[in-house]
Design the sequence.
């Protein structure tokens, strides 16, 4: 008498994780829709190594299963990430859209807010600034919130400290400072940032006193925590309504996101 071992898709997927790095994936073809039936002699001891060997042989014969497992995993991760982002945006809405330490460009009373996480030494942020300026020029009801997110080294950190101090002392001139520092060639650091601040009328002694304010580092810490909760690891990244947008995708994409959010606000999406 023989005993029958049925290896189903669930068992295959579980074992596949151990083999994922070692398989050379072949061309995709349709996987069998029926369970694989492998017969073994009655006196065969189906220990762990035997089962792993069976699964291994199956996967080597049907490597497209690995693609299916990978696709399913990526889909699951995207869904979980989106859910986490939506939850964070809902639960920390004020911190995202109305934090007192963030810069503001456009209409302070605008009916749609775009939040940008940026670094003064990010080349893509420099190019994206023109998108922001054109959007607020074309849309008088648009509000841009600028979250200072220094992640590109010590120079960035120092430049953003100057920026935060300048915003605290001269909020009405912050947009000019922001454009001036992003437009400055080369790496942004404390010296360049401070020079621009002084050119815009800041007092150096007052600036240096404010640069030592511990609330600046506290603000950075809150922004880092938000970025982590939103799965933001690079700049520029945006929050438009209840959606996180990664990368400098251009003015057309952001304008479409804004239009979609306005449409959802007036109807049920």
Sequence:
């Amino acid at each position: 008498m023989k005993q029958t071992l049925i290896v189903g898709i669930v068992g295959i997927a579980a074992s596949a994780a151990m083999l994922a790095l070692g398989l050379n994936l072949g061309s995709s073809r349709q996987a069998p829709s029926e369970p694989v039936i492998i017969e073994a002699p009655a006196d065969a001891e189906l220990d762990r190594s035997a089962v792993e060997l069976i699964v291994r042989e199956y996967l080597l014969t049907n490597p497209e299963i690995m693609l299916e497992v990978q696709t399913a995993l990526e889909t699951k991760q995207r869904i979980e990430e989106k859910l986490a982002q939506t939850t964070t945006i809902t639960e920390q809405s004020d911190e995202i859209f109305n934090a007192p330490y963030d810069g503001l460009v456009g209409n302070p009373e605008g009916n749609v807010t775009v939040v940008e996480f940026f670094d003064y030494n990010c080349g893509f942020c420099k190019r994206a600034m023109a998108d922001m300026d054109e959007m607020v020029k074309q849309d008088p009801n648009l509000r841009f919130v600028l979250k200072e997110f220094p992640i590109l080294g010590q120079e960035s950190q120092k430049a953003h400290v100057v920026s935060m101090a300048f915003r605290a002392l001269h909020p009405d001139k912050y947009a000019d400072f922001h454009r001036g520092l992003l437009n400055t060639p080369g790496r942004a650091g404390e010296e360049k940032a401070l020079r621009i601040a002084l050119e815009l009328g800041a007092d150096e002694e007052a600036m240096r006193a404010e640069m030592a304010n511990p609330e600046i580092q506290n603000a950075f810490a809150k922004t880092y925590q938000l970025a982590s909760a939103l799965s933001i690891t690079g700049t520029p990244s945006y929050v438009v309504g209840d959606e996180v947008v990664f990368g400098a995708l251009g003015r057309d994409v952001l304008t479409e996101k804004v239009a979609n959010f306005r449409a959802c606000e007036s109807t049920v999406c």
Remarks:
- The first helix runs from residue 9 to 19.
- The beta strands are 2-7, 36-41, 103-106, 112-118, 142-148, 237-240, 243-246.
